[in-house]
Backbone:
């Protein structure tokens, strides 16, 4: 077995070595969910080294990803919240057929490191914690944020939470705001809340919990379908699954 192929096999990357087989190295434009930033920033370079392809990844929130997908600008694949594929116009920009689930993650609440952890174990306790908090922060303009808003409405505290919400524009800003003390509670998917300076108070109570699914699909008009498919295949390898788990998400 060639040395490069042997190394890739050990790393779980064998399916992505198309350029070594004589095919050209592609540059792939990837649309990606902002909550996948840490995952893809680790996996992307690994894939590039193993395959010879280059990735240009555009991280953003669900509404903006839909705008990017439907703008008419070219892209090669998406690794995005499943909500993007539920938008008919965005789905039309992807090749027909099923998408591939890459990762899923639930929701939680974070506090500043060292701060007392409030009770979020039941819907009533979670509601009280939210109402007692002086401030909260999350990213409303996202698939995760849309679900959080639904939970507030379900608890009957939608209006009450508006006054104490500090709006962020990128997932990474949520734990940063909590770590600085700008907000008492950070509320989002748990992998984003696993960050320096903050601690997870707990997941949403089971009755209110839901998982955000990230799925992958190849663009309908890409000229690099084989390379795009290779990257998606790589994201489902055991090596990729290990990174996804280490970053606080569940693979598949």
Residues:
């Amino acid at each position: 077995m060639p040395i490069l192929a042997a190394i890739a096999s050990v790393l779980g990357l064998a399916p992505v070595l198309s350029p070594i087989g004589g095919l050209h190295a592609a540059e792939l434009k990837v649309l990606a969910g902002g909550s996948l930033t840490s995952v893809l920033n680790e996996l992307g370079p690994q894939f590039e080294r193993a395959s010879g392809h280059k990735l240009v990844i555009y991280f953003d929130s669900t509404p903006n990803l839909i705008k990017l997908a439907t703008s008419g600008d070219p892209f090669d694949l998406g690794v995005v919240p499943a909500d993007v594929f539920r938008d008919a116009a965005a789905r039309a920009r992807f090749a027909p057929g099923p998408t591939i689930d890459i990762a899923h993650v639930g929701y939680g609440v974070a506090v500043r490191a060292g701060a007392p952890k409030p009770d979020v174990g039941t819907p009533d306790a979670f509601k009280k914690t939210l109402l007692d908090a002086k401030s909260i922060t999350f990213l409303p303009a996202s698939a995760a944020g849309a679900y959080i808003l639904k939970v507030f409405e379900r608890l009957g505290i939608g209006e009450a939470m508006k006054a104490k919400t500090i709006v962020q524009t990128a997932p990474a800003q949520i734990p940063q705001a909590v770590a600085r003390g700008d907000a008492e509670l950070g509320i989002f998917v748990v992998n984003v809340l696993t960050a320096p300076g903050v601690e997870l108070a707990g997941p949403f109570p089971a009755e209110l919990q839901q998982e955000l699914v990230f799925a992958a699909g190849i663009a309908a008009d890409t000229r690099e379908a084989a390379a795009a498919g290779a990257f998606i295949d790589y994201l489902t390898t055991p090596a990729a699954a290990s990174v996804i788990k280490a970053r606080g998400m569940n693979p598949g």
Notes: The domain at 107-208 is CATH 3.40.190.10 (D-Maltodextrin-Binding Protein; domain 2). The first strand starts at residue 27 and ends at 33. The chain is about 40% helix and 25% strand.
